[in-house]
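It is worth pausing here to work through a concrete case rather than discussing structure prediction in the abstract. The textbook approach is simple: state the sequence, then state the predicted structure, then interpret. We follow exactly that order.
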Amino acid sequence: MYDSTETLANEKIDKNLKETIKAKNDSLLSALSNSDMKTFKTLGSPDFVKHLQGRIENAVWAFRKGYLKTDYEVYDEYYNKHGKAPNNSKIESEKRQYTFSFTNNAKETYISLLKTSYNNLGDYLITIIYEKIDGKWKLDYIHLDPLGQFGNNAQDYFDIAQQKEKEGFVIDAFFNVDIAGSCLTPAEKMLKYNNEERILFYQKTWQEQIKSEYKFPQPLRNISSVPMVAELRPINNREGMFPLFSYETKVPVEDTIILEMEFEEVKREIKRIYTGLDFDKKYIYYRAFNPGNYNNYHEFKIEK
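Step two, the predicted structure:
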């Protein structure tokens, strides 16, 4: 019927078709939130319905437990006409720098990539594939995977990492590329970023560089009480990702007056040693704990 595959993306798709798919997506996400099997069966293709439990298992838990809400935004969407079915198809996104590969089981398919968030912190991608069967759009596939956080995907974090490395902040570079590496498969193996191999390479390279340059635990010998930095890692609050230093001190954490006096020295010494970290951030966290009692700590938050 079709000589070749034709793909229309986003705003180039017919408005009425987009509204049709939106209505189906709204119904689908509502069904995920309350395990509405009747709606799944109405939306699904015969093969989807036949393997219903397995097809929805990955996506339904987060909505049913209330971790994710039914509100979403369209990340990308594609309407495809295929010259052959079944066949392997590819869609390339120049804007987001990825290739989406899938098997089309019908001559017409519609890919909906929807973004939703957990508490406005972690972003998730809902991948939905519809097929046109006997003139009707039927659900054939749904999957949920991490997309990124704070509005950034893997490619965005890699861009940030490269910039931080250019500025001389290899610790920041690693923190960001590590996040990129953790969300490289937001649609199982169907979505592949163009820079995937580079992300994995620099994730390993910068991690090894940090291990070579910064040893843990790190005694702060210029301080008479010799506290030791035990760990440096990123943590999230509602505004973004920020560094956390955990250090062991002989000063009882309950003695906040002496602890704060020591902390002023700890703060200066840490900044002197960890030159690979950009300290020009809104927040930097420090946790002081006593030997053998890591979970009982006093936290300092430095706000710019």
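Step three, interpretation. The CA atoms of residues 56 and 282 lie 41 Å apart. Helices lie at 15-34, 37-43, 46-50, 52-64, 154-166, 170-182, 196-213, 256-273.
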